[in-house]
């Protein structure tokens, strides 16, 4: 993952409303959640919800699928896993004690 992509995704999740939306979709699982139910659950006005969903879609954290007349949002788990992997990819790499302990063993 490129650092600019990671920064954009972290910035999107840095907004409390968008973080609530994303967490609700993660809890919903692979089936996702219709926009109307998301709005009811989080008690967010439709226009506000639409604005925040658009921001999350634009960075690839969620996707939307139309099922008949219903718009369903889904958390993009692979994208989030990629972001988490990016954040921990170099964990402790500069920690000299960790390296010394590994070479001494």
Write the layout of secondary structure elements.
Layout: H1 3-13, H2 16-28, E1 33-34, H3 35-42, H4 46-58, E2 62-67, E3 70-75, H5 77-88, H6 96-104
Antiparallel strand pairs: 1-3, 2-3
Folded structure, characterized:
- With 105 residues, the chain is α+β, with helices and mostly antiparallel strands.
- Helix 2 crosses helix 4.
- It contains 6 helices and 3 strands, in the order H-H-E-H-H-E-E-H-H.
- The two termini are 33 Å apart.
- The longest helix has 13 residues.
Name the structural class. alpha+beta
How much beta, percentage-wise? 5-15%
Tertiary shape: elongated
Radius of gyration, rounded? 18 Å
Count of runs of 4 or more consecutive helical residues: 6
**Cα end-to-end separation:** 33 Å
List keywords for this structure.
105 residues; alpha+beta; three-stranded antiparallel beta sheet; 6 helices; 3 strands; elongated
Give a quick summary of the entry.
This protein is α+β, with helices and mostly antiparallel strands and about 100 residues long. It has helices at about 5-15, 15-30, 35-40, 45-60, 75-90, 95-105, and strands at about 35, 60-65, 70-75.
């Amino acid at each position: 993952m490129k650092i600019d992509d990671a920064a954009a995704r972290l910035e999107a999740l840095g907004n409390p409303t968008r973080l609530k939306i994303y967490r609700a979709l993660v809890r919903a699982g692979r089936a996702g959640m219709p926009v109307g139910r998301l709005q009811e659950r989080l008690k967010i006005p439709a226009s506000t919800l639409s604005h925040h969903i658009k921001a999350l879609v634009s960075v690839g954290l969620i996707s939307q699928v139309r099922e008949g007349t219903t718009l369903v949002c889904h958390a993009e788990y692979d994208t989030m896993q990629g972001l988490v992997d990016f954040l921990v990819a170099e964990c402790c790499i500069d920690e000299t004690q960790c390296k010394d302990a590994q070479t001494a063993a």
